[in-house]
Design brief:
The structure is a single chain. This protein has two domains: about 325 residues, Methylamine Dehydrogenase, Chain H (7 Propeller), CATH 2.130.10.10; about 70 residues, Immunoglobulin-like, CATH 2.60.40. Helix content is about 0%, strand content about 45%. Strands 9-12-13-14-15 form a five-stranded antiparallel sheet, with no helix packed on it. A four-stranded antiparallel sheet has the order 2-30-29-28, with no helix packed on it. A four-stranded antiparallel sheet has the order 3-4-5-6, with no helix packed on it. The radius of gyration is 22 Å and the shape is globular.
Length: about 400
């Protein structure tokens, strides 16, 4: 289903006409052999050229056969397997939530670990970003650290007035950092950061930042979203495509492959996983046979022709799933549905294909509670949302391959 988007011309703007979610025949399979305890879930952390890394409970695991089996590795710090990982300059780096050193590296795939010089302490390393020949680490309260040789790290926070960094992205010669409390900052080489313009004062608590083609995208906590077509210098409001549901939980890029985990309501809380190989011009729904009740951003890693995802402690016992490339594809086009205006104050117009006429619909709020229901009586109908409180809602047309539409009520 498509929704009219109000976004500047970009690689993503073609989504209005070209986006067709698909269900593929490739199946997900559990790959937990060797993992002793899944009571606290499992998280994918990263990969080296020869090994995958994941954690379950307080144990770091590694796999040398693309997830067929796992063995326990040595934790970087006792009882602390880390929060994220990255391969750089011939080494695998672990980012930790620790009161001591928060970045360590291994040259033997987890048999032994070494501390770095000048790295952050007493913080949470949330992730890594490779850029301009260096590796950057972003943290929860210590800002950003950078290395060019992997041994010596230093803080790169000049001009970064908010040190709670939630994500990073690259845009041409620029590096961007999304923060919780300060919105987005950018730099050319990490020496001086400048806060960007265009993001509303109430939307400075960042949640995600990512690139598609030549455009940048930023999602704030609470649902507001923005895009930039000038390498992150200025931002304008953006409305995400309808099939993304209630918002994004996780965005990962591996080369030209983009993966997005999104939140939907479908008889309860449900997450979906999408893949794009053309910079967001089209997307494939690869949720498939996953139990999508709560994937909840538990790590997406692409490795050796397969994609892996983990279930966190909210879904104990599920562990790690793997999906490898398949040649069989069964396309199930979503019905084309438009809603406007969106955001809306009172009346909203819903335009459906003829096949969906007569189908029942319901509107739910972000908790899943139904606030409105009825039946679509024609190809174009008007719904009165004036009585609803301001906020985010989801319109669901029951029947057919019709994805939910997110509607913002002002």
């Amino acid at each position: 289903m498509k929704q009219i988007l109000r976004s500047p011309a970009s690689a993503f703007s073609g989504l209005v006409l070209a986006c067709v979610p698909m269900i593929t025949n490739a199946q997900w399979s559990q790959t937990n052999t060797g993992i002793a305890d899944l009571s606290q879930g499992a998280y994918l952390l990263g990969a080296s050229p020869t090994h995958l890394f994941a954690k379950a409970g307080s144990t770091l695991y590694r796999s040398a056969n693309n997830g067929d089996s796992w063995t326990a590795a040595t934790n970087p710090v006792a009882l602390n397997p880390g929060e994220c990982g990255a391969y750089f300059n011939g080494r695998y780096y672990a980012g930790l939530n620790a009161s001591t050193d928060c970045i360590l590296y291994t040259t033997d795939n987890g048999d032994t670990w070494n501390s770095v010089t000048g790295g952050p302490t007493a913080t949470v390393v949330r992730g890594f970003q490779e850029y301009g020949g260096g590796l950057f680490a972003y943290t929860s309260n210590a800002g950003i650290y950078v290395t060019t040789d992997g041994d010596t790290w230093q803080a790169a926070n000049n001009g970064l007035t908010n040190l709670n960094v939630i994500g990073m992205s690259s845009a041409g010669v620029y590096l961007l950092a999304a923060t919780i409390g300060g919105g987005v900052y950018r730099t050319i080489n990490g020496t001086v950061w400048n806060q960007v313009t265009g993001i509303g004062a109430g939307d400075l608590n960042g949640e995600s930042i990512w690139r598609m083609g030549s455009a940048q995208y930023y999602a704030a906590q609470g649902g507001a979203e923005y895009t930039s077509t000038d390498f992150g210098a200025t931002w304008t409001a953006w409305t995400q495509p309808a099939f993304f549901g209630l918002g994004l939980l996780e965005v990962k890029r591996y080369g030209t492959d983009l993966y997005m985990e999104t939140r939907h309501f479908s008889g309860g809380l449900r997450d979906s996983l999408y893949h794009s190989a053309d910079e967001g011009a089209s997307w494939t729904n690869i949720t498939g046979n996953l139990n999508a009740a709560d994937l909840n951003g538990s790590g997406i890693v692409e490795n050796d022709g397969c994609v892996f995802i983990g279930y966190n402690l909210i879904s104990p016992g599920q562990g790690i799933y793997r999906r490898c490339a398949s040649t069989g594809v069964e396309e199930v086009p979503a019905q084309a549905v438009r809603v406007f205006p969106n955001p809306v104050v009172g009346m909203i117009t819903v335009v459906l294909p003829q096949e969906a006429v007569g189908a029942p619909y319901r509107v739910v709020d972000i908790t899943g509670a139904e606030v409105l229901r009825g039946r679509i009586g024609g190809a174009q109908v008007e719904l009165d949302l004036a009585a609803l409180a301001a906020g985010t809602y989801v319109l669901r047309v029951e029947g057919g391959a019709v994805a939910p539409v997110r509607v913002v009520k002002r």
